[in-house]
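FAQ
Q: What does a multi-component entry look like?
A: The components come first, one per line:
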Amino acid sequence: MPKRRDETVPEAEFRSYYGRPVIKAPVWHEPHMPVYLYLGGMSGAASVMAAVARVTGHDRLALAARVAAAAGAGVGSVLLITELGRPERFLNMLRLFKPTSPMSVGSWTLAAHGGLTAIGAACAVTGVLPAVGRAATAGGAVTGPVMATYTAVLLADTAVPAWHEALCELPFLFAGSALASAGAALMLTTPRAEAGPARVAAVAGAAAETAAGMLMERRLGLVGEPYRLGRAGRLMKASRALTLAGGLLAAVAGRSRALTALSGLAITAGALCTRFGVLEAGRGSAADPKYTVVPQRRRVAAGD
Amino acid sequence: MTDVAPHRYGFFTDTSICIGCKACEVACKEWNEVPDDGFVFLATSYDNTGSLGADTWRHVAFVEQDGRWLMSSDVCKHCTHAACLDVCPTGALFRTEFDTVVVQPDVCNGCGYCVPACPYGVIDRRRGDGRAWKCTLCYDRLRGGLEPACAKACPTESIQFGPLDELRERAEERVGRLRADGVTEARLYGESTGDGVGGTGAFFLLLDAPETYGLPPDPVVTTRDLPAMWRWAGGAALALAAGVAACFLRRN
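Then the predicted structure of the entire assembly, as tokens:
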């Protein structure tokens, strides 16, 4: 049965089974999954900042970054476990290492990253075994970038068109957002005189997140429509506005306490909106058979 | 068939002779003890189950068109390159000695990753139970030398079970005869090993475009692009590390 839609400019005509979805929507819950995506990114970028701050002698910033990285990974792990259909079986995630499963790669990454950042933070806070703490923090600089970007592969490696087709931009969107999130968290928890690198991270991350998001929506065309419609569209717009405003504020905040707080909160809220928006867009993309059928039909017509 | 199977086994569902009796749905539920899938009235033809899911492992689609009825019993495709199996982090999903794809309920921890990975929307997480469920191609019956319950119950032999190479030959013959008889719209779906999932273990003879039955016209296993995804993510990870280092270059 032909189906017509008039909400978009390029009207896509296609057939479906009573308008029912072809694929299943992601079953992941709110707020668990999107908050985990935020915390994992923040923790990943913060752990890299901790390592660099320690080496470059930004001791107060390094302490805040180590604690933020450990807290993000710890709370994130709890969210992921409660997200499972059978939480008591969470250890099954480490039954095997499976390179074809981004979730398996991610589970091992989170296990390593969570352990390293916890050790790094514990040693920094208590002052015991400083050498172990330094080694763990250095290790976090390796696991951190993987933590911040593997989640993009996790989403792209599905049949959900709005995620799968965004495989080039999603990692940069998440990496940028992670850098901005870590910058914001450290701006909020480090004395302003010592938070210079955090402010730079917030500005650079906000710029990268905004650029990657705009590129993604522009390139995807019809498949990117769910990022602009309904609740997902509102979340993505809010994310763009908050991230841009927070990034600009961070650039001029300098030593003003109020502006720094405002900027950090805006960037954090923007990063959260990005994750909620991306999850919601994935659901919208799966729910309407148009996004599955039309691109596949075009592919068939083009002779692959 | 009690020995280790020498062949790949599967289904050929010839929808041109499906009468929409739903005996397959009932037989599947009875044998596999699948819970009810909700007593709902969808008001779309005679279909009140809607789609495959955790509690619907055979689904009969009814399409009313001008002058004809299309009926088709859908099922898990048991793909050659199965996305659900590829992305399962626990190893709960595995490939059997019959080349079918089965979930081990005692291993699945309900992460839900297989659900959006399937290009056909087959597998789903069961509410209340928390684990992922789908057609097992009656793994227990196969091991006992029996054919799957749906094929056994099908009164018109629309659902045929057997070694996949034999089924493919039979299907080619059938589609050729239908076309010769003037049913030019008859086509096979999922029989080609050259498609995006490497061919399916359960394939179909359809009388209209796949999307008419709720099937994707050109499904692709998502993990085909996994190397590219990791390359892009690797680039972003390196950019992130470099970006952080650059943040500390500036003195303030």
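Q: Is there any commentary attached?
A: Sometimes. For this entry: Chain B touches chain A through 75 residues (CB under 8 Å).
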